[in-house]
Amino acid sequence: MPEVNVEINGRKYRMACEEGQQKHLIGLAARFNEQVEGLKGSVGEIGDNRLTVMAGIAVLDELVEAERKIAELQTEVTVLTRAGQEIAAEAETLEHQFASKLGEAARKLEAVANAIDDTATLPQG
């Protein structure tokens, strides 16, 4: 199993990961370190453990907010999908009605054409 070295709050840590996940783990560690450094800048030196816990909670807060937004967007997708299906069904109904009316108009025009043909072939007296 591959290992990578990451740095969090000025300390180096050796971590194992799945094959091919080295860059991903290094990127995650760098993002977490940014959280730690940001907190350190705003609250000062408060101890490594407390700082790490605060950074972890801040990251989880962002995760919970992202999950909430995802759930909200999934609900919107469901609503929009349903609306699209309703519009498609309505369009299909209108198409059938139009086809029916067009067929009816064609029959009437054919009847008029037949009547004209019949009138034209009648002997004149």
From TrEMBL:
<dbReference type="GO" id="GO:0030428">
    <property type="term" value="C:cell septum"/>
</dbReference>
<keyword id="KW-0132">Cell division</keyword>
<keyword id="KW-0131">Cell cycle</keyword>
<dbReference type="InterPro" id="IPR042233">
    <property type="entry name" value="Cell_div_ZapA_N"/>
</dbReference>
<dbReference type="GO" id="GO:0032153">
    <property type="term" value="C:cell division site"/>
</dbReference>
<dbReference type="GO" id="GO:0005829">
    <property type="term" value="C:cytosol"/>
</dbReference>
<dbReference type="GO" id="GO:0043093">
    <property type="term" value="P:FtsZ-dependent cytokinesis"/>
</dbReference>
<feature type="coiled-coil region">
    <location>
        <begin position="56"/>
        <end position="83"/>
    </location>
</feature>
<dbReference type="GO" id="GO:0000917">
    <property type="term" value="P:division septum assembly"/>
</dbReference>
<dbReference type="InterPro" id="IPR036192">
    <property type="entry name" value="Cell_div_ZapA-like_sf"/>
</dbReference>
<keyword id="KW-0717">Septation</keyword>
<dbReference type="Pfam" id="PF05164">
    <property type="entry name" value="ZapA"/>
</dbReference>
<keyword id="KW-0963">Cytoplasm</keyword>
<comment type="subunit">
    <text>Homodimer. Interacts with FtsZ.</text>
</comment>
<dbReference type="GO" id="GO:0000921">
    <property type="term" value="P:septin ring assembly"/>
</dbReference>
<keyword id="KW-0175">Coiled coil</keyword>
<comment type="function">
    <text>Activator of cell division through the inhibition of FtsZ GTPase activity, therefore promoting FtsZ assembly into bundles of protofilaments necessary for the formation of the division Z ring. It is recruited early at mid-cell but it is not essential for cell division.</text>
</comment>
<dbReference type="InterPro" id="IPR007838">
    <property type="entry name" value="Cell_div_ZapA-like"/>
</dbReference>
<protein>
    <recommendedName>
        <fullName>Cell division protein ZapA</fullName>
    </recommendedName>
</protein>
